[in-house]
Specification:
A hairpin with a 4-residue loop joins strand 13 and strand 14. Helix 9 runs antiparallel to helix 16. It is built from 18 helices and 25 strands. The chain is globular. The chain starts with a strand and ends in an 18-residue tail after the last helix. With 613 residues, the protein is α/β, with parallel strands linked by helices. The longest helix has 22 residues. The protein is 35% helix and 23% strand. It binds fructose -6-phosphate. The site of fructose -6-phosphate (F6R) has 15 residues, from helix 9 and helix 16.
Length: 613
């Protein structure tokens, strides 16, 4: 939550900061602000609204011809305090010495505020952040700021990524990290910091990912790192291979649409990196301790949101292939309340696009405290999850900017499927027939996805036809239940329409009461062993006058008479259907949202990276 950008160097900081904020706006977009440092002053400009409006205001401001050589900016996703200009970041201390912006939540903010107010400090905003800003002003007495920074970090509980300008320390930016992501870089004549690596790729690919409990001092000459005890730290940079063009919209109207189209290429990359023609090949990418998979009796897939639906898909696949394992999938925020087991017979697999989701990180830390063996799947090399687990695999989807996850979901499902096969193979629980069948199936998915993308105009026409539905029910069975959840989530997120997902057999146990001619049912009915059961469930919905859209297999013309409309997709192995079925559901949600005039890449109330619990 919240996007941060900082710059200190020789060039005009204004454009660097605005550019960095625009690239991270998907992290939060309630309000935006920036602080620019001039020789003898710091100008703080804030608005309620988008970065484009901030840009207009900054460009209309007259700085008397002066050019700021350092500064910082912020896009906010409100936690404490309403959405207004006063609560927007950066915040300034009452004495004007400290200007600070923050991503995270300070849990002891109230306590600090009460104490400082009793000492006469006047607060301007309702935010938790201002407590940190006013406290630093009290702790800093001039000269080197490191002692005040260490005391500040020690005094706070909760999560923070701070970027700070100090009035009498020109040419310096201070950063600190605990719980919220912050990445730092130096490219010769300038230093940068940001919440998200994509904001820095225009300048450099050599990045320093700040660790928990770290402080950084940035100048145009370089970056110095310290622990919260003030001791200096040596850090190695990580080279991020992403191309800045990958984070560009190109000719597309929305990032989400571009990212949907990128799926065949992303899957080709992912699948070819870990498979041979007929077998899994993770020897080089995943080095597990010898004998681990024979000892394991429990496997837990843990994630949030769309990544959780990828987890459910992997859980179904693993369970279907090995009945000797206890396999389950958990929502990360609930994992902590379960007795997850202890010791090295348990393997937990954490899935997170960003690698920064607070709930997933907490779950992974709990698993560590119980001696559980941990693997992660993330899309961001250098992210916290990537660095903290025992083994990490990258989903190779490239930067995803649209708030609604699309290509990262299919990349996760493909990589998880390969991982499941590899783990079962190591356990001696995978037959060569299943291995060849599923790997062959996986390798044909990108071409089949292309065929679905070519049907976009038909899906668009359907979306326009059904956009005035009062809601949607998605129904499916077995491996397609997670697919119904993902289809419904896409519509909720970007079209703001009530949309629910059910295991088809559950409909008649309650939800069917809601059906009428304005509530559309989307039924997942591929040509598999469950087709007839699904069609019976569809008939039950039809009898209640609900309009029906079917997702069916190419050539299964028999279903045409049963639904009002059918979206056909190519045939595939039953376990792999979600990798195809999700593409039309993404396109459908996209076109419904577009028909309704929604803000597709930045839907209301959401943020891409959820770094608070
Ligand atoms: C849905 C979506 C979210 C994320 C969830 C987890 O389109 O994007 O539900 O899937 O917030 O995020 P990561 O995968 O970064 O942990």
């Amino acid at each position: 939550m919240c996007g941060i950008m900082g710059y200190v160097g020789k060039n005009d900081a204004t454009q660097v900061i605005l550019n960095g904020l625009a690239k991270q706006e998907y992290r939060g977009y309630d309000s935006a602000g920036l602080a620019l440092r001039f020789d003898d002053s710091i100008k703080n400009i804030k608005i309620v609204g988008r970065v484009s409006e901030l840009k207009k205001l900054v460009e209309a401001s007259d700085f008397g011809g002066a050019v700021p050589a350092s500064g910082m900016g912020h896009t906010r996703w409100a936690t404490h305090g309403g959405v207004n200009v006063t609560n927007a970041h950066p915040h300034e201390s009452a004495d004007g010495n400290i200007v600070l912006l923050h991503n995270g939540i300070i849990e002891n903010a109230r306590e600090i505020r009460v104490k400082l107010e009793a000492e006469g400090v006047v607060f301007a905003s309702d935010t938790d952040t201002e407590s940190a800003c006013q406290l630093l002003a009290k702790l800093y007495h001039g000269g080197d700021a490191l002692p005040a920074m260490t005391k500040l970090c020690d005094s706070l509980t909760g999560a923070f990524a701070f970027v700070i300008l100090i009035r009498d320390r020109p040419g310096e930016i201070w950063c600190a990290r605990k719980g919220s992501p912050l990445v730092v870089a130096h490219d010769g004549g300038a230093s940068y910091c940001a919440s998200d690596p994509t904001a820095l790729l225009d300048y450099t690919h050599d990045l320093f990912f700040m660790e928990e409990g770290e402080i950084a001092r940035l100048t145009e000459d370089g970056c110095g790192f310290f622990g919260f005890d003030g001791s200096p730290r040596e850090k190695q940079s990580i080279f991020l291979q992403w191309d800045s063009v990958m984070a560009d919209k190109g000719h597309y109207e929305h990032f989400m649409r571009k990212e949907i189209d990128e799926q065949p290429d992303v899957l080709r990359l992912t699948i070819e990196a870990h498979t041979d023609i007929t077998s899994v090949d993770m020897e080089k990418t995943l080095k597990l301790p010898p004998g681990l998979m024979s000892r394991i009796s429990r496997v837990q897939f843990v994630a949030c949101g769309t990544s959780y639906y990828a987890a459910l898909t992997a859980c179904n696949l693993m369970e279907s292939l090995d009945d000797t394992l206890n396999v389950r999938a958990d929502v990360a925020s609930e994992y902590r309340y379960r007795n997850i087991g202890r010791g090295d017979d348990t393997l937990a697999i954490f899935i997170s696009q960003s690698g920064e989701t607070a709930d997933t990180l907490s779950a992974a830390r709990i698993a560590k405290s119980k001696g559980v063996h941990r693997i992660a799947i993330t899309n961001v090399r250098g992210s916290t999850l990537d660095r903290e687990v025992d083994h990490s695999l990258l989903s190779l989807a490239g930067p995803e900017i649209g708030v609604a996850a699309t290509k990262t979901f299919t990349a996760q499902v493909a990589l998880l499927s390969i991982l499941v096969l590899q783990l079962l193979k190591l356990r001696g629980a995978l037959s060569t027939t299943d291995e060849a069948r599923l790997i062959g199936g996986l390798r044909s998915i990108p071409t089949k996805q292309q065929a679905i993308l070519a049907r976009d105009l038909d899906i668009k026409a359907l979306a326009e036809k059904y956009a005035d539905s009062k809601g949607f029910f998605f129904i499916g069975r077995r491996e397609n239940v997670p697919l119904t959840l993902e289809g419904a989530l896409k519509l909720k997120e970007i079209a703001y329409l009530p949309s629910e997902a059910y295991a088809a057999g559950e409909m008649k146990h309650g939800p069917i009461a809601m059906l009428d001619e304005k509530l559309t049912v989307v039924a997942i009915v591929p040509q598999n062993d469950l087709r007839e059961k699904m069609l019976s469930n569809v008939a039950e919905c039809r009898a209640r006058n609900a309009p029906i859209i079917l997702l069916a297999t190419d050539g299964d013309d028999g279903v045409k008479a049963i639904g009002n409309d059918v979206i056909f997709v190519p045939a595939t192995e039953k376990e792999l259907f979600p990798l195809l079925g999700v593409v039309p559901l993404q396109l459908f949600a996209y076109h419904v949202a577009k028909t309704l005039g929604r803000d597709i890449d930045m839907p209301r109330n959401l943020a891409k990276s959820v770094t608070v619990e």
